[in-house]
Write a structure and sequence with these properties.
316 residues; TIM Barrel; 13 strands; binds iron/sulfur cluster
Length: 316
């Protein structure tokens, strides 16, 4: 079991441009990469510890101190987003962390979770403290769940769906259900129809369709054309939408503008040049300067995906 300790890359990152959340100040509360799933599309890479055991990973006070100092530096965000390098509901201090964030700031709190532990009453109770919960549902049956999400042995699609249905009954905030589509696996009309039936039972406020716009854990997982995603959104109906583009770059004099900040962003996920500009509030020229420097130091790699170049840190 991992004992509480410090996170060498820090707990807070961003604000990063989020296609859903605007400027999202991220809190990473699970080390890379501990998760209940090992999704083929994961942008963080393969799961190294597949686990369903909740535990303390870090000292909550250290996380809060870092958050306080970011906010004191004048950083602005549309959401404080709990998520990061693994499944955040595996952190048994999730509920107390949200309580403490409420004491520091009025910025809304979002949780990005794969939803697999929502069958547990303690996890549901802790997640109800957030303003917005973004869970996932990428499959409607055991076979597709296994192919897309490669779950831990004690996680089933039935548990996932019943946890989501139960959570909707208990949570009065917003639920935006993400459906990540992997071409040829969960995109057929039959698969989509089965997912639609689960969505009808879950009753989220929104359904958001996503696909691999960034390099995925497995090769060959590609972004799906907008027209196809829109056709699938129409099939699901209701409040289903295709997740849009990142917000425009903005310059904020309080944001830091160093190679270290770029590196900190890239440690969490691959980013395009535009992501970096918007995430740390630098011009395109400044971002190019930092990227060139980091490439020359062999600190990062570049990779093409869907016609866009993404930058990421080198694997350890
Ligand atoms: S995409 Fe999310 S749920 Fe899936 S393996 Fe990566 S961190 Fe875990």
């Amino acid at each position: 079991m991992t004992e509480p300790g410090s996170n060498p890359v820090g707990y807070i990152y961003g604000p990063v441009p989020s296609r859903r959340l605007g400027r999202s100040l991220g809190i990473d509360i699970v080390p890379a990469k501990i998760c209940t799933l090992d999704c083929v599309y994961c942008q963080i890479g393969r799961t190294t510890e597949k686990s369903t055991v909740r535990r303390k990973f870090f000292d909550v006070q250290a996380v809060l101190d870092e958050l306080k100092s970011k906010l004191a530096a004048g950083i602005e965000a549309d959401y404080i987003t709990i998520g990061g390098s693994g499944e955040p509901t595996l952190n048994s201090q999730l509920g107390s962390l949200i309580d403490c964030i409420r004491d520091i700031t009025s910025i809304p709190v979002a949780i990005i979770t794969n939803g697999t532990l929502l069958y547990r009453p303690d996890v549901r109770a802790e997640c109800t403290k957030a303003d917005l919960v973004i869970p996932s549902l990428d499959a409607a049956d055991a076979e597709t769940f296994r192919r897309v999400n490669r779950p831990a042995p004690d996680i089933s699609i039935e548990k996932l769906v019943s946890g989501l249905v139960q959570f909707r009954q208990e949570f009065h905030g917003q639920i935006w259900l993400e459906v990540f589509l992997v071409d040829g696996v969960n995109t057929s009309p039959d698969e989509v129809e089965k997912i639609r039936q689960h969505v009808e039972c879950i009753r989220p406020d929104r359904v958001q369709l996503n696909s691999a716009v960034r390099p995925a854990a497995e090769p060959g997982i590609e972004a799906i054309a907008r027209e196809r995603l829109e056709a699938i959104a129409r099939q699901i109906g209701g409040h289903c939408e295709v997740v849009g583009a990142a917000p425009e770059a903005r310059t904020d004099r309080h944001m830091l503008r160093t190679c270290a900040d770029v590196l900190s962003m890239l440690k969490r996920r691959p980013c395009s040049l535009e992501d970096i500009c918007a995430g740390i509030g630098v011009t395109r020229n400044e971002a190019v300067k930092h990227i060139t420097q980091l490439l020359s130091e062999n600190a990062i790699l570049s990779e093409r995906q869907g016609g866009v170049t993404y930058y990421c840190t080198r694997p350890d």
